[in-house]
Amino acid sequence: MTAAVADTHDDHGPAKGFTRWLFTTNHKDIGTLYLVLSLVMFFVGGAMALIIRSELMAPGLQFVHPEFFNQMTTVHALVMVFGAVMPAFVGLANWMIPMMIGAPDMALPRMNNWSFWILPVAFGMLISTLFMPGGAPASGWTMYPPLVLQTGDAFPFLIFSVHLLGLSSIMGAINIIVTILNMRAPEMWLLKMPMFVWTWLITAYLLIAVMPVLAGAVTMLLTDQFFGTSFFLAAGGGDPVMFQHIFWFFGHPEVYIMILPAFGVVSEIIPTFSRKPLFGHDSMVYAASAIAFLSFIVWAHHMFTVGMPLSGQLFFMFATMLIAVPTGVKIFNWVATMWRGAMTFETPMLFSLAFVFLFTIGGFSGLMLAIAPADIQYHDTYFVVAHFHYVLVPGSVFAIMAGAYYWLPKWTGYMYNETAGKLHFWLSTIFVNLTFFPMHFLGLAGMPRRIPDYSTQFADFNWMASVGAIGFGLSQLIFVYVLLTSKKGVEATDRVWEAPRGLEWTVPSPAPYHTFETPPKARVAQESFK
Amino acid sequence: MNIQMIRKSFLSLLGLIWVSGASADWALNMPRGITELSAETYDLHMMVFWWCVAIGIIVFGVMIVSLFKHRKAAGVQPASFSHSTTAEVIWTTIPCVILLLMAVPAAETMIKLEDSRNPDVSVVVTAYQWKWHYKYQDEGIEFYSSLALPSVKARFKESGIDPFSVENYLLEVDRPLVVPKGKKVRLLLTSKDVIHAWWVPELAIKRDAIPGIINEAWFRAEEAGTFRGQCAELCGKDHGYMPIVIEVVEPDAYQAWVDTRTDGSAQLAQMEARP
Fold first, then answer.
1. Is A168 a catalytic residue?
2. Residue A25 catalytic?
3. Rounded Cα distance, B192 and B16, in Å
4. pLDDT tens figures, A58-72
């Protein structure tokens, strides 16, 4: 290819107008679409969370009826898990993985387009169930039968939207695996790949392994409801507990699907702002792989109260406790990365540091939950709500925020408003703790989850949590402000930060529409990872 | 006079703090409970908690020291090390040892929790949307237990009743489960519709009531009194309104209760048992 041809190709920019986004096969455009959808869903799910917290602010029913409250908890969870957290990581993967491994685009660009555009359809359908006779699904996002079979007209729409979400995830995962395995620049050996690429490779395998399991589980619900089968119906010889086993065989790896890419993001950011290489890169890879493997053999720790045989309970208790070891390795490695570095505290670093602190707190409550006899007390209480919100909000969501601030200058070509970013960070951190820390106490004191009203002894901490939730929700508007003003700052350099590592910092800011049409020089790839 | 007044007001202030401290419910921790196994569960919970605190102090401590010492603003030059096999072996091995220390007592308690052999009293607990049904297997007593009337009146939106004015709001039932103190009580749990879970924190028992399945749980209450719990598995719109109240009484009083319920009043009990 001559230089002249390459130049004209560089000018080949995006189409104009709406069709650009509808028909795009460009990984950067699709990444943006995913991230925008994720932000919208974050606010939709957040609004539902605020309805929940407003109702729980004081004992007695003030705003909603119990049936609507249950719809809110259910749809909030589905929207946040499948609409906010997962698409955000896929968006980051779309934007960053090709640039990190020196590839021109994702391996399967048309499928990439499709796997995104399925999502708005699926969520349109899911959210439309709120307006159907019988309301939205109200059986919790875990969809346990027989309760889920009492859903009204929304039931088949729930199943179909879960199918679509799974389809999108599987296609996205295939695309990521094929891209990573086939399109790396020369000398980008597997163990030289950045941690974000590594954690996504592992995550993508998890997705392919478990999304079909979820699809199978909900299909059985569908046939139980409409086609006379009795997979989960005791009256017909079925077993309601079997659904829980199948669901959590999907559900537990799903938990790591939502946290492994977060580990990856944080593992990119901490070295940059510590001005020191990531400590124990290879052991981080092995730890992530170990977590992924263990995620397949711990599912029944969600079910210590269903009446499993003693041997089963002991096995799942021991296996669950083991997860603490590779997770600990990761946390120790991040701390060792900071140790004797020269740290600065820009917004991405602040979010990453809060991630390490607060995810660890979520990890501690996770270890407590692993202890089966104690779990019997914690199970289905606010202690569990506190636990998984600690790993998902100051865990996954903070990592997404950190990644967004970290790569935003690379995407837009301008530095974001650092003061607003820091304000966003501090308010988010204060309010997230005010929201979720008291929930530990509520759960231990005996408040079950998923109840619209509670005994007066729980009033004080619930009030605190509600105040925190409102504060957290409002703080996120600062992030919108940062995004809206993201092109008003000073122009970003190619490297953006003082000491970042990785190929994405060798291309201009903003990254051109097409990057790495010829593979980057091996030497560059090597140097970036020394 | 002044001194006396000051002392008086100080004492009353102290009293005020004491009273408000006692009436405000800032319960932070799990109850220790009233059975041997609830105490063991509590001890396990506290053991793991203190391990977490210890690990947290070390990890967060190192991190905080690093945040203050190893910052660019302090003028430090970054080191360039990126691995240490010794360190990694140490921080993989030590957690394994700690886990082993936790796993052994946890397994011991778990084994005891599952041993429901030779009960003195057996009660079949059947869950409905949204109430409980208790049937004493050998005594021939059965009745439904649902949310007590004062709470029922107050629970609705715009009921105009302040929940704080209702005693044991949402945690009171019309007919509690009565069990003898010091006797091994076995619960056989099942459900007639969806999955529920029978939970009384003071007994450290939470067991799902599942249609088509009979689950077992047991306890031996060492203390008399009234203890409260709730359904713990989402079971539909009134999931928050099916509390559990259990009265632990002396064996004599229990026998007297059984006698009044069965003696000549079997028909009355039957009538009461209707929903």
1. yes
2. no
3. 50
4. 999 999 999 999 999
